Amino acid sequence: MFEIMLATYAIRNLIRDKKTYQIPTMIEMGGQYGMQTFQQSLRSLVNSCVISLEEALLRAPKAEELLTCR
Predict the structure, then answer these.
(1) What share of the chain has pLDDT > 90, as a percent?
(2) What ranges do the domains of the chain cover?
(3) What pTM does this model have?
């Protein structure tokens, strides 16, 4: 379970412009670059049967989203 953020041009601009609150959205949309949020990582592990849904719900920042995407 981990989050991946790459220093893309867009991410660097957000940091430079002090708009770090937008970074989670950029990570979520940056899958084509290999980025993923912690939530996406949990969902992937549940879908692959590596961890149980119950375990993921204990650690998920937005547990309700895991329940709706089953």
Answers:
(1) 81
(2) 9-68
(3) 0.78
pLDDT in tens, 21-46: 999 999 999 999 999 999 999 999 99
20: helix, strand or coil: helix
The C-alpha atoms of residue 66 and residue 13 are separated, in whole angstroms, by 30
Q: Distance between terminal CA atoms of the chain? A: 18
User: Which one-letter DSSP state was computed for residue 70?
Assistant: -
Cβ contact 4:32 at 8 Å: no
CB 55 within 8 A of CB 34: no
Q: Using alpha carbons, select from 55, 66, 59, 53 the residue that is nearest to residue 3.
A: 59
4 - beta bridge partners? 36
